[in-house]
Amino acid sequence: MARATSPYGTWSSPFSAADIAASSPRIDGARFVDDEIWWGESVPAEGGRVTVRSSSGETLLPMPWNARSHVHEYGGGAWTADPDGTLFFVDAGDQRVYRVSRGGEPVALTSPGPNHGGLRLQNGRLLAVREDLRTEPHLRGIVEIPTDGSAADAPSAGRVHIQGADFFAHPALSPDGTRIAWVEWNERRMPWQEARLRVAAIGDGAVTEIPTRAALQPEWASNIELLYADDPSGRWGLHRLQLDGIHASAPETIAPADADTGYGLWVLGNRWYQPLSDGRIVAVRTNGSDEVLLIGADGTVRTLDVPASAHASVDDVSGTRVLISGGGAAVRAGLWSVDVDTGEVTRIRGGEPTDPLWMPPATRVTLNGANGPVHAFDFAPANPSASAPEGELPPYIVFVHGGPTAHVAGAASTAIAFYTSRGIGVLDVNYGGSTGYGRAYRERLDGQWGVVDVNDVVAAAHGLADSGRADPARIAIRGGSAGGWTVLSALVRGGAFAAGISRYGVTDLRALAEDTHDFEKYYLDGLVGPLPQAEQVYIDRSPLTHADRIEVPVLLLQGEDDRVVPLSQSETIRDALATRGVPHEYVVYPGEGHGFRRAETIVDALERELTFLGRAFGFTPDL
Question: What is the number of other CB atoms lying within 10 angstroms of the CB of residue 113?
Answer without folding.
Answer: 15
